[in-house]
Amino acid sequence: MLTMTNSFRLVSTLMSTDAAKPSRREQILSAAAEKFARSGFHGVGIDDIGAAVGISGPGLYRHFRSKDAMLAELLTGISDRLLLGGQDRVGAAADPRDALDRLVRWHVEFALANPALITVHMRDLDSLAETDRHKVRELQRSYVEVWVDVLCQVRPDLDRPTARAAAHAVFGLINSTPYSAHLDAEAMSRLLHRMALAAIEKAA
Question: Where in the chain are the domains?
């Protein structure tokens, strides 16, 4: 996996990409993501997260009502950010192929920069409360449909179920980077971009 310290300004970017210094709340979320990625949600205590940001475990309750609330904010945050980022890039595209290229670049950028969040999402989604898990799933489905709309324009021969399966396959390829990134970030980005587009072109 990519080193957990290179987490796309991690949670601070979920909140504000313009902030020069992350807020205390953002620091806590960043520490929680790193800890959850290393040890799993159930392997991390509130005191562990507090120690990582220099405050007592109970002091975290001034910012979050529970460890579960931290996980919920992390996973709904990344799902919401992926959806909004995808919609923005499609809206700025000149044509469907440009939209697809932008979507691929966006997802690659996010995955390479947020390895801890990708790991937490894949491993700990089921640890969310049912209501929060449903919200994450709804955001994910909406994000997938952004891809499906574009894929069906680029590849009119694909029906929507096939386009949807292709989108999920591409996500699997890109989201494997926490375990497969052996190049520097720029080289890995180029490789993933080429492989994702090639996979889409080969979809039957």
Answer: 4-202
Q: On the CB side of 193, how many CA atoms lie within 13 Å of its CA? A: 14
Give the tokens for residue 73.
């904010």
Neighbours of 194 (CB within 10 A): 11
Q: Are the beta carbons of 130 and 120 closer than 8 angstroms?
A: no
| pLDDT per position as a tens digit, 158-204 | 999 999 999 999 999 999 877 776 788 899 999 999 999 999 888 75
| Cα–Cα distance, 1 to 91 (Å, whole number) | 32
CATH number of 4-202: 1.10.357.10
How large a percentage of the chain has pLDDT more than 90?
Answer: 68
Contact in structure between 104 and 113 (CB atoms under 8 Å): no
